[in-house]
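JOB MANIFEST
job_type = single_chain_structure
chain_count = 1
residues = 416
[input]
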Amino acid sequence: MTRPALYWLSAALLYVVAINSLAVGADWPQFLGKSRNGISTETSLLDSFPAQGPKVRWRVPGGVGMSAVVVQGQNAVTTWNNEGKQWLASLNSDTGEKQWEAEIGPAYENAMGDGPRATPTISGTQVFAYSGEGILVAVNLDDGKVQWRKDVIKELGTEPSEYGMSSSPLVVEASVIVHVGGDEGAVAAFSREDGNLLWKSGSGHAGYSSPMLLEVAGSAQVVSVTGTAVLGINPNNGEILWSYPFETDYGCNTASPVAIDGGVFISAGENHGSVLLNIQQKGGKYVVSERWKSLDSKSVMRNEWQTSIVLGEYLFGFDNVGAAGPVSHFSCIEAKTGKAIWQQSRFGKGNLTYADGKFWLTTIDGELVIARADAKGFKELSRAQLVGKNRQTLSIANGYGYLRDDNEVVCIELKK
């Protein structure tokens, strides 16, 4: 080979290596992604869809349910109703081929929509799922073999939430934490090894939110928005460290809490509104105050079921108008003050994730919207129809996007 040819070959190889090094892949193993905040570390993703629409990697039949898809390696996992039962199912993330199904319980039916609500959690070699009526299961990720199954609602003597148990399991070391509701424990932790009860904490309606592990006042705490309050909980023993009343009509606290500058942001629809809490230790006790609050029909942010995303000094999310009304704006506020920055009026109901400097917005009608948004404003880059009506977020994993509705699961290519 001549020296010029060798030079150009070397240059080409260096270019390929450089390009590949930019495309950082990451799994999406739980509700709202690896860090449970709706943000992916993926880079080198599309800025817009091709004229013919997104490139579909695979599209396969599924079942009825509200769970999102979680991804680890070659496992794309979700839950659904099918043939009279609730199932936890793993699809091959490369091909969509069903790898295994594990029975959770009988098919879940509800006037607000059928099928399981909670998104499963992959942790190590285990998958944890929570059924619509409150059955918690642990299965082996490789083959779907059920390790244990617990009807936690029955065991704790409580009643399922009116619209179904929606708490996506939170794994903290050796425990699996979900909302259960009840006078003797709104939140409970179970051993990931055998499902035995480790602790229960708080009281009241379970709500529809999912517990989060947040850094609060210098320590890692489980922060749970139940149907009646926000609780800061010691993950080791279930001790209530602090609480703040946050009661909505019908217990419809659905969005999860968000960490902002050491504080905790909470938001609810039904015209309720939002608050940024400040939690400090004073005299060995935790003291809760309000940095700012914006409540009732004039609130700057009323998350109906969507958890907002904080980027730098700003918070982005869906602001729903009215008591579960049809109008939703996509809004930006200053996180530390609650000051309204801008509003994309009547964007419509949907969900949000963020990756590679762009928002990936799924609409309730099954569209996927790519948009750039910062303090200066909102710019839609591309829009495509992917599935039918749904309430799921787009799961972004290893250069691909996963979305589902009540009929099918689709995987599209997101890499440039």
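[summary]
The first strand starts at residue 56 and ends at 61.
The first helix runs from residue 3 to 22.
exit_status = 0
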